[in-house]
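Subject: LysR substrate-binding domain-containing protein structure
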Amino acid sequence: MHLGELEAFDAVMRMGSTSRAAEFLGISQPAVSRAVARLARSTRLTLFRQVGGRLVPTPEAIALHEEVERAFIGMDQLRARAAMIREFGASGLRLACYPALGLSFAPKAIQRYRSRDRTGHVTLLIAGSNAVRDMVASGQADVGLTADEIDTSRVSVQPFMSAPAVCVMAASHRLAGRENVTPADLEGEPFIALSPDDTVRRRIERTLEEAQLQTRTVVETQYSEVVCNLALEGVGIGIANAMTYKASQFESRGLVARPFIPAIPFRALILTSKDRLKSTRAETLIAALHDARNDIGIKVGTIETAVSM
């Protein structure tokens, strides 16, 4: 199979007909039909059927298209990388972060880095922890920041932070005057929960089960940043990453955070390639990440028992 055949197939799947696919690609309709026919022969798959005058993809076509889309994502990344090399040379840095640190913390670290190297170019990529690991392992990213629950056998790892879980709430909430919040305080409260696959959420649920308590979940979300914003709007209370709370300056916006007891850490890792030596610029970026973390008041390998307000 050839790239042109895959592009024609992808266009037909997206546009719904060979004529619209041809218009999208800027080629003739017969050329699209011939390319799709060649792909069907080379894969020995029936890709489309005519039903009532419409071209309908078969289940095999749908399954194949999922793989083609994944391949095209890789091609798009290659094109973007080539464009970046053309514009900035091969010395640009790629920092991949999971959202908890990518949305608010990473910009602070990049500013730190830029204060030391004004000639360097940084690409910030936001993705889930497993995807960040894959980017670093494959060389698509120079440095990665991830949560600690992933398989790290394919990359080099160093601990980055252990930020405490904090209970966040509007300033008017009844728990805002407490020094800390315990599982018993959560019972019956409208609760903003992290997603079910989140490691910290599972730890919180185990803590509640041991105390024979239940929360009243009203919203679930993947990100601590969203937990904080929902709590600020008065939707309920939630457990969030202290790094997110501090990096996004939620205190200045009126959101209250209280330490959650027993302490539950949000841990993060710095990932680099096992197969390549770190460049001087990558080392400088890693140093900037550590400095930005220290500025915020989060340390490596420790669980804070209080959040300074």
